[in-house]
Amino acid sequence: MREILFKPTISLLKIMILIKLGGSIITNKEKPLTANKPAIRRLASHLRRIKEPLVVVHGGGSYGHYWSVKYDIHTKPSRYNIKGVSVVKNSMVQLNRIILESFLESNLRPYCLPPSDFMLSDKPIVKKVKEITKIAITGLTPISYGDVMWFGKNKFYILSGDKIMGILSKILKPRLAIFVTNVDGIYSNMKTKRLIRDITVEKPTVSEVTTDVTGGMSRKIREAANISKNGTDVFFVNGNFPKRIANAISGKNFEGTIFRG
């Protein structure tokens, strides 16, 4: 069982680790509405060993992403198909429930945190966001996720998990931010699988990236660059090897890509 190492009275700066579990690792994107439960259990088992407050965000994969493509719902606010909005939101609740149950079984004490708890339209509620770290230091693990959101004026939009990472990082200023995907990191060339290990430039470029309705790898790169500009190191690791998460946190034997904060 993960120990509670911090007291609520201490400074809330730079004591938290923010982790994004990509849809590509927690679901089977080739098969609609299929969670990768063995991978989720392995990740939960390794996250349990981390002796620092955690905040977790997860993507939609073959759940929310599948339906958002089917109903043509995007990140731009618009008057989308109402049934589609309902289906996308319900699918994310379904996937989130699977994550929560797996984490609970691994003694991670998950705390469900829908983005509607800290977002109003497309803007973060700063006071509510700042409460997240306070929740994390109690020993609970706040878990949020990408979702379809109410914008106002009968409009909705997709708020991706990657975007949530950027929002939370800017306000909470975590010690580290980690994107867990199904590849080893950022490649300079997808064909040759040449890995970029260290990125310090302000606007990193990648010759080939895959995209999906929420921006795919290109969105992750943009968010990681912005997070690092605010002083937080950002790691990209392969979730098929969960120990790499611990390596990124310890700074030893790290395999992947790091954006220097």
Account of the 3D structure:
With 261 residues, the chain is an alpha/beta fold. It has helices at 23-26, 37-47, 61-70, 82-105, 126-136, 161-172, 216-229, 243-250; strands spanning 17-21, 54-58, 110-112, 119-120, 123-124, 141-145, 147-152, 155-159, 176-181, 186-189, 194-196, 198-199, 233-238, 257-259. A hairpin with a 2-residue loop joins strand 4 (119-120) and strand 5. The relative contact order is 0.17. Residues 3-12 and 204-215 have low confidence and may be disordered.
Q: Give the biggest beta sheet.
A: 8 strands, mixed
Please give the order of strands in the largest beta sheet.
3-6-2-1-9-13-14-12
The overall pLDDT, averaged over residues, is 88
Our estimate of the beta-strand percent is: 15-25%
Unreliable spans are: 3-12, 204-215
Q: What is the count of β-strands?
A: 14
Quick one: CATH class?
A: Alpha Beta
**Oligomerization status of the protein chains:** single chain
Topology record:
Layout lengths: L16 E5 L1 H4 L10 H11 L6 E5 L2 H10 L11 H24 L4 E3 L6 E2 L2 E2 L1 H11 L4 E5 L1 E6 L2 E5 L1 H12 L3 E6 L4 E4 L4 E3 L1 E2 L16 H14 L3 E6 L4 H8 L6 E3 L2
Parallel strand pairs: 1-2, 1-9, 2-6, 3-6, 9-13, 12-14
Antiparallel strand pairs: 4-5, 7-8, 10-11, 13-14
Helix pairs in contact: 2-4, 3-4, 6-7
Can you describe this structure in just a few lines?
The chain is an alpha/beta fold.
Give descriptors for this structure.
36% helix, alpha/beta, 261 residues, globular, 8 helices, 14 strands, disordered N terminus
